[in-house]
Specification:
- The protein is mainly alpha-helical and 153 residues long.
- It has a two-stranded antiparallel sheet.
- Helix 2 packs across helix 8.
- The protein is globular, with a radius of gyration of 18 Å.
Amino acid sequence: MPHPWLSRRIVYPLHERLLKRPTFAYLESLEESQWLSRADLERLQARKLTRLLQTAAKHSPWHAERIQAAGLDVGANCAPVTLEQLRRLPVMTKQDARVNVDRMRWVNVPGGASKYNTGGSSGEPLVFYFGRSRQASETLAIARLICGARRQS
């Protein structure tokens, strides 16, 4: 097993770069944001939520229709979306995801998207797609969990 420093500084960053995932850029932003005040963290969350909704509105016809029907302004120069405004969006169900998978998917997402599906424990598998950013987020969450568990033992 490689030395932890070598793994953290060389092996894993190289691995993630080869996979074209922004994992370590995401790690840097998490390490910076963990020390924010509650108010600053809430502002950051609102900005990220707004960017997510802008991306969904731009690249997913199904989400764009729902965002517009909820009366949310996610234009380029809009104020950050509040939680109160977000509550106007109806909850997406598994049935919505099954029926509209092609209208939800960002076809030309940078870096491509990988198809995933659940095991179907509810009777039918749920098909969905992950882009590179989402893959990086999941990889980072697992790495932080493992590193945190090692520090505690």
